Amino acid sequence: MKEEIIIAGFGGQGVLSMGKILAYSGLMEDKEVTWMPSYGPEQRGGTANVTVILSDERISSPVLNSFDVAVILNQPSLEKFENKVKPGGILIYDGYGIHHPPTRTDIEVYRINAMEAAIEMNNTKALNMIVLGGLLKLKPMVSMENVLKGLKKSLPERHHHLIPMNEQAILKGMEIIRKA
Amino acid sequence: MKEEIKLMKGNEAIAHAAIRYGADGYFGYPITPQSEVMETLMEEKPWETTGMVVLQAESEVAAINMVYGGASCGKAVMTSSSSPGVSLKQEGISYLAGAELPCLIVNVMRGGPGLGTIQPSQADYFQATKGGGHGDYHLITLAPASVQEMVDFVALGFDLAFKYRNPAIILADGIIGQMMEKVVLPPFRKRRTEEEIRAQNPWAALGKPKDRKRNVITSLELDPAIMEQNNIRFQATYKRISENEIRYEEINCENADYLIVAFGSMARICQKTIELAAEEGIKVGVLRPITLWPFPSEAIARQTSHVKGILSAELNAGQMVEDVRLAVNGKVRVEHFGRLGGIVPTPDEVLAALKEKLM
Amino acid sequence: MYMDINDIIKPENLVYTKPRLMNDNPMHYCPGCSHGVVHKLIAEVIDEMGIEEETIGIAPVGCAVFAYNYIDIDWIEAAHGRAPAIATAVKRLNPKKMVFTYQGDGDLAAIGTAETIHACNRGENIVIIFINNGIYGMTGGQMAPTTLEGMKTSTCPYGRNVALNGYPLRIAELVERVDGTCYVTRQSVHTPASIRKAKKAIRHAFENAMAGKGTSMIEIVSTCNSGWKMTPVKANQWMEENMFAKYPMGDLKNV
Asked: Which of B25, B63, B207 lies at the smallest CB-CB distance from C53?
């Protein structure tokens, strides 16, 4: 098993932390993991992205030409990464951030209205967890149990009371992801 | 305590490894992309557990001189920085080499010259491997290609530095510093006591007991005849290091038709290039120097018996390629491929370059 | 009563001995220089406090670069201006040791200003001995930050012009304002009385450092008769008349 994933959006949307939780979950499953962020000024309002690789084998390059899955939360990121999805791969986008949807037909495109759902849940910070739920629905690469363990590892202790809310958001995402 | 498996950034790994090694002191100054080293140390507060001193200095210049001070007392001390900051440290590094002091320096390289970018680069290869400051000296230069090696090379760097009384440098880059991977952390080791240091490093300036002459840590010697003898002694040390400490990794080299020589994060990228090349029926191997100085010249030269060409792939405009060419001595074609200023190539870009330049 | 050499060397006629910690290496300092006197005072203080096995000196770049040849303790020779950074690490890694720097005005007040101020500001438990003779002695008499207005040196041959070179820098006044210092004093060693006072100051500073009270700086206004191109006597006179006006004697801070 090997999944090469790019998660991209605006800084502040929780792109890096979503990747981190995925990486921690992979660690809990005893997989090899690599989490490679874009870093620098992007973190402060520009676009941010993170490459996450989960694999049963030793991981070679943390830098990739193409991805099995692209999770896209804003328009500039779609423009940057749509053509980097491997043929037959998956692209997930948030309906709120994308005005010109993807046009490729050789990949599977899914839409998740995560921002909408987050607003309904009265918690826009849950956006990334809703998206993570959608991703895990399509690619159950890690078990829910290990995601929760991963959350516990990646969140500082003072935020552990938020774990049930995050679990809810993940379940919500699993429920609302739709083929575009 | 036992070994522990964790997920962490390369920069964080340096900090944890230093505490567990039993390092006595860290002195640094913030600079992207390596500030997590000092941030992690400050968060961990090792002065409350192992007794390790951690201090944010007023400049990189002060930080390397604090390292000089600590090393003069035989303590295991280190600093970390990124390219512009490491340039500032060069004076101190030259003094450390000239005074035959062990220490560990970490450079998480970013694109230059000047203030440059904060993105990954390997453009400080010359600086690290050819000395960097003034005078004839070398640093033991270790190039990690994973977060695990960031951990492992802290201990290796300190051990080699003390074994040869010479500074060691971990030459990493923004990718290795910023990415998170699974690491196995070694068990905690006790810091050495003053008595142990006095016994193991009798040269250390820890205060002069009545039964020995005073210890003077200095790189100064105004008599050129004596200074030449000092230099001859340094060169003998470098020769011993070159004979005993060369480290490298060969990946798929045995039946390769083409060889890529690459270090650090670039070597990781090129391992993916091997896979892409194999899909096209091209047999590519990667030779990854782990010690950049001393350089694995003989290991590279041996490859000329069966490869048609060598590509030196680097995040710079062509630095290590000079050492590869010296090693190969004209026996096969050696070309360079690099991206500059903080741009990192993808594995297929490397393959395209290999095909264009060597096939 | 007439004494010949055999009388003079009799132990009962001994009136002065070289400090035990001063060794027999011939000094490279010029005759008339203040360094030798200050070295002697430091050696006496270390001996009297019984801390020679715990004391580590940090030597500068400048005339005192070879200080390590004369006082019989462990020494570390610093890069130019960096002694306070080195002392910081030595003291923090060895909190029970006595750590002092010995620096001239070029070393401390020009290239090492940042290291000086920040070591003082952190309140490092060290002693900084600061020899201020208003000139770069070692390199042949160039202008220092402390060179007086109008004073001639090889890099201000027509006299220091403040429009061109700025004003003489008063370091003691600067570090006195820094919260980490506990003792800042300005002394000289040109008369027996001033030498006795300077020694007391050094002893007090060393005691501060061992008691963990913060940074002590002793500025010693000194002569450089070679650099000033004067006889030693004339240099002392010139120092009193000119240097003391800009760099007045006494304690600036003693907490």
From this structure: B207
